[in-house]
Structure prediction request, 609 residues.
Amino acid sequence: MSILKLKPACKDYIWGGRRLADEYGIVSEKEILAEAWVLSCHPDGPSVIVNGPNQGKTLAEYIQAGGRQVLGTHCRRFRDFPILVKFIDAKQNLSVQVHPGNRYALAEEHQYGKTEMWYVMDAGPSAYLYYGFKREVSKEEFARRIQEDTLLEVLNAVPVQKGDVLFIESGTIHAIGADILIAEIQQNSNVTYRVYDYGRVGKDGKKRDLHIEKALAVTNRVPILRSGRSYPHVADCDYFTVDKLNLDGSVMRKVEGVVGAESFVSILIMNGSGNILCGGESVPYQKGDSFFLPAGSGVYTVEGSCDALITSIRDKTNLVRAGIDIGGRYTKVGLVDEEQRFIAYRELPFNTESPEQSIRDAGDAVLALLEENGIDLELCANAGAGVAGIVEEGVVKYSNNIGWKNVPVAALLSEQLPIPIHVANNADCAVLGEMAAGAAKGCQDVLLLTVGRGVGSGLVHKGQLYDGAEFGHMVIEEDGRPCSCGRKGCLEAYVSVTALRKETAEKLGTPMEWEELWKAACAGDEKAKELAETYIRRLSTGVVNLVNILHPEMVVIGGNLAAFGETWLGPLKESVQSKSFGGEHSVVPEIRAGSLGRKAGTLGAANLV
Prediction:
């Protein structure tokens, strides 16, 4: 089914009339029909499919069943369905209000902010609306005029007529006046801060609430200039692109369009009648109808006579992505551009108080880096987080290294960042980072071991990430040393930095990093030499086991050990060559030290999709 006809959710706000029912055929049992949410996935008023095999499903249920591909690739950057389309019948003046931007709305309301556009479908001879201020006002004057009921004196009253278009960016104070019919395309949000309401009372007989403090915090207090910057579109912004369709039924009786894989198409019929054809289907339309065409539906045709608004989601350029690497000692956060280059990078101490606080710290760091570099949150396409442990559907089920169990990382980050959030094991992120811009760039089959506080592992086979590989917990010494996972003899228990420090402390009297151990061995210390050789043997045992099973194109050793590549790389290659199946006849994969250091996991996390 390529053409979904939608039944709207209806709202009976006190300022509304009945024109949407009487003239536009929208069915509602409510005495007042102020708004019809004709394309909506918002929980406050979802629209429902009324035709075809999906009849009776909400649009949100259809998208959930069909997968996000029905929205198109341009919608990947949105966490939720991006838009909400309404008809509005203002019989009386609406309240004077303002909408917050994404960052403020997310922090205060846990949903998106709102940017919107209005298309005036009809207006009385003296109709007007409020759009910004006449002049710049201070925050103090703004607050005083709200208190004194003199706010209207400084608002910009704009006369309107049929066909007028206004773009209302978040932070713009505005109000629809009486005797106006409007088609509204907006962000998928229901956040409104009311600052003036003509002293009206609600259904409960009490004055409706005002939201003065929040409005003071988000309102842009300078005049707003109307411009034609959206030409040739009716409206064009990062959230929606709207085009006008006019068919007169004689000279212009038919128009074709294409619904590509990039975006769905919304068709809102404001006047007229005819048919929409797509994918072998033909669905009739009339005034007041709303249709959703899933991404990839192909060529569609609108024929007949109509005035309609066609809405889609355009691509966004110069996007950045956020990467987060949560480890045992540090949380590493970075912003990455489309060329895999770091725009900004920061390390902060890992917060041991609670997982929730650690995740909040990471989200705050992303927001701070965006602000410090003058990058709007809307330009951040997604955020990825790498965490040590077992990760399933955005939840860290278990991490022995940082002591987390069942921590909903994606959900917690979404409270701060209104963008798609992806979560994976941090070693999986590290291998993606090295493949994107590091030692394994250009390779399709890569095994990575990160040697640090533990031993993490990541595997990409034929370009596909293998989720949740825990090769650091394969046993290389039966009944050997206890491992943090609860077993004995794991690779991690012998070659992690933690294990090396412990063994050198026991046998040499002082805990050492690899570089110190190697220097002591080269200086003639026999015990140090023996320990170094044993360490390489154990590491190579683990690598050989994996090479014999997986046959990767390349093995990358990352983490702390990577910094000392010149000292251990040669001995490790020789050991792997001699131990691999087939000996001198075997083809040993190239073995390299990771080149991105501590940033590998952060870069890889930014590449999670």
Observations:
- The chain has 14 helices and 33 strands.
- The first strand starts at residue 4 and ends at 7.
- The two ends are 28 Å apart (CA to CA).
